[in-house]
Design brief:
Blueprint lengths: L10 H8 L5 H9 L2 H15 L14 H21 L5 H11 L8 H14 L2 H12 L7 E2 L15 E5 L4 E5 L7 E2 L10 E10 L2 E11 L12 E5 L12 E5 L2 E4 L8 E3 L5 E3 L3 H38 L18 H36 L6 H29 L11 H8 L9 H20 L27 H28 L4 H7 L1 H23 L6 H21 L1 H5 L6 H18 L3 H6 L5 H4 L10 H10 L12 H15 L1
Parallel strand pairs: 1-5, 2-5
Antiparallel strand pairs: 2-3, 3-9, 4-8, 5-6, 7-8, 10-11
Helix pairs in contact: 2-3, 3-5, 4-5, 6-7, 6-8, 8-9, 8-10, 8-11, 9-10, 9-15, 9-16, 9-18, 10-11, 10-12, 10-15, 12-13, 12-15, 13-14, 13-15, 13-16, 15-16, 16-18
Length: 666
């Protein structure tokens, strides 16, 4: 079975592919991390593509109950494939999930990620021996219940309680208020029978903060909720129609003492609380992994999908004349369309590379932690926090820009972009609200700035805070890579120093530290965003040399320059405020953007083809690989359930009014 149907490709799209100056497959290998990884990914994708049970052509014509029923059925097919890959790697499972549930949150997602991850990394050997086989074999289905009706990002203020009873060696899980109800966990509403419940731990009359507990919610045979457990679905949302996000309340519900997740902290039989010295640090590890996934696998891929759809459609859509009397032009020929789409294309590449690096950083941290070395954890937590915030928001904005670039047809669910957008949008909120995460990074930056000001040498991602940049940018008409990297570092250092000065000025006037932090928070958020951009820019620059093919290096260089130039152009005041960037240099940057649009134009289709999305990944008629948009869009519209009859049954309500008006005229 061929990966793409190439028998009847739209001539406009075929001609675009022939213009490329590089081999798209070689760039695909760079994105995947090597030729063998590309080969393996395609093998797994083909395994799903050949199984017709995964076909879901009429998704947008289903109601929510039908969608949930269908996705659960599809989960059973997915689990069959997982068993076939029982010896597979985490990458294999990621490839399988991406093709089996494209642009479609599925109810087993939190079970396979957070639930299993916590059991693997935060339980004792005895607990792991009990729970991990059941979780991996799908004998139990779990979710991660942290967010409550009244509290989300502020985990310390969660209201669910777990009170230890030494007489029975049990914890009493309780929801003491309405706002303590767990609210939003994916898979909780109808799918999961267990949950990792985050609750305030009380023992011997003291509260020891929030800890995780493994709690059974439903009977394993009947799937009915257990007595003392109230659980259900929270109802329709902006998107996520296939996900049963749920609510959960406990009424003095008892669980065994050993159901507390105990690797990092535990309660002894007599009620004594014992905490590991590294417990709070280890909790950050799972967050780093999750946020690294958001950067690359979610934000980067979602934006890449939307750009693929918009660029392909722009290559076959003809509208208006560039010159009077000439045929209508492809809309991608218009500079304004290129200006809408090519910066988003460059951003998608930047985020994919950043996500890949962040995941490698996490893997290195994992290896170091095995020997007790957690030195890099704080920095990785700070970096992953601001990267998650930067990429989730920018991807959301970029996806909407792609929809707008597709005109009226972009508003149709058939375009595929609305489905991508509503899956990406929650990324600005879950796993930490973006502003809160930026401020967490800002605390790390201010601490590093204070060290630099005391003469302490800095290492890692904050080295630029103690660097001596020249007073003038070296950006010129050659748009050198190093000049861009230096410019972003200079801007980050400058903004962080201004934030630090603001804090110092406020405290010097007698303001307490908490109020001063609040009054400086806009600048602090900006400093964290600038820090994230340094990471992205440095990573993108390094990625250029990850291919030995000069033509691939050349097109990656063009993308890098566009990404860096576009960022400077949009925030020029930051770079010019202290005289670092002159007005004539900004003119060079802006002229360079227009030149890069023209230079990238012949490679536009090859650059989106290099993402290597199958049509199933995209779920889009506008972004089809063969470019045959109009006939398929018309056929899709004709299949609408409203077209099942020529006269809809609701006409009975209009008929009397129409008849009455007709009689009055006669």
């Amino acid at each position: 079975m061929s990966r793409h149907d190439t028998r009847n490709v739209n001539p406009d799209l075929g001609s675009e592919r022939s213009k490329a100056t590089f081999d798209a497959d070689k760039l695909t290998n760079v994105l995947d991390g090597g030729e063998q990884k590309t080969k393996r990914r395609r093998e797994i994708e083909l395994m799903v593509l050949q199984d017709r049970r995964f076909d879901w052509p009429d998704y947008h014509f289903m109601d929510r109950n039908q969608k949930y029923d269908r996705v659960i059925r599809q989960c059973s097919y997915y689990l069959e494939k997982m068993r076939e890959l029982s010896d597979g790697t985490k990458d294999d499972i990621h490839y399988l999930t991406s093709i089996a549930f494209p642009n479609m949150p599925f109810p087993l997602g939190l079970h396979l990620s957070m639930f299993i991850n916590v059991i693997e990394n935060q339980t004792t050997p005895e607990q792991k021996a009990k729970w991990l086989p059941m979780a991996r074999n799908m004998e139990i289905i779990g979710t991660y219940a942290q967010t409550e009706l009244g509290h989300g990002t502020n985990v310390r203020a969660l209201e669910t309680t777990a009170t230890y009873d030494p007489r029975t060696e049990e914890f009493i899980i309780n929801s003491p208020t309405l706002t303590s109800a767990k609210f939003w966990p994916g898979g909780l509403g109808k799918t999961a029978n267990h949950a990792l419940v985050m609750a305030q731990l009380f023992t011997q009359g003291r509260c020891h903060g929030v800890h995780p507990f493994i709690v059974q919610l439903r009977d394993l045979k009947s799937h009915e909720p257990l007595q003392g457990v109230t659980v259900g679905d929270i109802g329709p949302k902006f998107g996520y129609e296939t996900m049963d996000n749920g609510f959960l309340r406990f009424d003095q519900f008892r669980i065994p003492r050993v159901n507390m997740v105990m690797k990092n902290a535990k309660v002894e039989k007599d009620g004594r609380f014992v905490k590991s010295s590294t417990s709070s640090k280890l909790a950050y590890g799972a967050m780093v992994q999750t946020r690294a996934t958001i950067v690359g696998s979610l934000a980067g891929r979602h934006l890449a999908k939307a750009v693929t759809i918009a660029v392909r459609y722009s290559s076959v859509r003809r509208q208006s004349e560039l010159k009077p009397g000439h045929p209508e032009s492809k809309i991608l020929e218009f500079q304004t369309q290129q200006f809408k789409l090519f910066p988003a294309l460059a951003t998608a590449y930047a985020f994919l590379f950043a996500g890949s690096r962040m995941m490698k950083d996490y893997d290195r941290l994992n290896e170091e932690s095995l020997s007790g070395n957690l030195d890099s954890l704080q920095e990785l937590h700070a970096t992953s926090s601001c990267l998650k915030s930067l990429t989730s928001y920018a991807a959301m904005v970029g996806i909407e820009q792609c929809r707008l670039a597709c005109g009226g047809h972009g508003y149709s669910m058939a375009s595929g972009i609305p489905a991508i957008y509503v899956v990406e949008t929650p990324g600005a909120t879950y796993e930490g609200e973006n502003t809160v995460l930026y401020l967490q990074t800002a605390r790390f930056l201010i601490k590093a700035l204070q060290q630099a000001q005391r003469g302490v040498p800095l290492s890692g991602s904050t080295r630029y805070l103690s660097a001596n940049f020249s007073g003038q940018s070296t950006i010129d008409q050659h748009l050198q890579i190093d000049s861009f990297v230096d410019a972003y570092k200079h801007r980050a250092a400058s903004v962080t120093r201004k934030a630090g000065q603001r804090l110092s000025q406020l405290t010097a006037k007698g303001m307490n530290a908490y109020d001063a932090w609040n009054k400086a928070s806009v600048l602090l958020v900006k400093a964290a965003e600038c820090h994230a951009l340094v990471y992205v820019i440095e990573t993108f620059a390094s990625a250029i040399s990850s291919s030995t093919d000069r033509k691939v290096q050349a097109v990656l260089t063009d993308l890098f320059k566009l990404y860096a130039s576009y960022g400077i152009s949009n925030t020029a005041a930051d770079f010019m405020q202290d005289g670092y960037l002159r007005g004539d240099q900004l003119d060079i940057v802006n002229d360079g953007i227009l030149s890069l649009l023209e230079k990238l134009r012949p490679n536009a289709i090859a650059l989106v083809d290099a993402f290597d999305f199958h049509d199933r990944h995209l779920g889009s008629i506008l972004g089809r690989y063969d470019g045959n948009v109009y006939e398929n869009l018309y056929d899709w519209a004709a299949r609408s359930p409203l077209n099942a009859t020529q006269v809809h049954k609701s006409f009975q309500y209009l008929k009397p009014s129409l008849a009455a008006k007709l009689s009055s005229k006669l």
